[in-house]
């Protein structure tokens, strides 16, 4: 009979499997700001469209915010 894992054990197993240091990209300021911009774009309904275009728009906003620090 197959042993069932508890939800906590299953979550730990999943987390370990997904967190491979060779494949995780570091969270840079640009990525963080793009994520914040993406949240705003999607919540405002302006994120409807091609995913590639929405992603580019989020990174454009991040770049704009980084350039604004000068």
Task: Provide keyphrases for this structure.
elongated, 3 helices, mainly alpha, 0% strand, 70 residues
Write the layout of secondary structure elements.
Elements: H1 7-18, H2 29-43, H3 51-67
Helix pairs in contact: 2-3
What can you tell me about this protein's structure?
- By secondary structure, the protein is mainly alpha-helical.
- It has one domain.
- It contains 3 helices and no strands.
- The protein has helices at residues 7-18, 29-43, 51-67.
- Helix 2 crosses helix 3.
- The longest helix is centred in the last third of the chain and has 17 residues, at 51-67.
- The radius of gyration is 18 Å and the shape is elongated.
Number of helices: 3
Q: Please write the string of helix (H) and strand (E) elements.
A: HHH
Provide the domain count. 1
Measure the end-to-end span: 64 Å
Cα radius of gyration in angstroms: 18 Å
Q: Give the biggest sheet.
A: none
Number of strands: 0
- Mean pLDDT over the full residue set: 84
Shape: elongated
Percent helix range: 55-70%
User: What structural category characterises the helix and strand content?
Assistant: mainly alpha
Determine the strand fraction and express it as a percent band. under 5%
Note poorly predicted spans. none
Summarize the model shown.
This protein has 70 residues and is an all-alpha fold. Helix content is 63%, strand content 0%.
């Amino acid at each position: 009979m197959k042993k069932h894992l508890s939800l906590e054990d299953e979550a730990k197993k999943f987390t370990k499997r997904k967190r491979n240091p060779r494949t995780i990209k570091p969270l840079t300021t640009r990525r963080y700001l793009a994520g914040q911009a993406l949240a705003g774009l999607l919540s405002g309904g302006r994120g409807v469209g091609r995913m590639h275009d929405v992603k580019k728009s989020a990174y454009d906003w991040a770049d704009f915010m980084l350039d604004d620090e000068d």
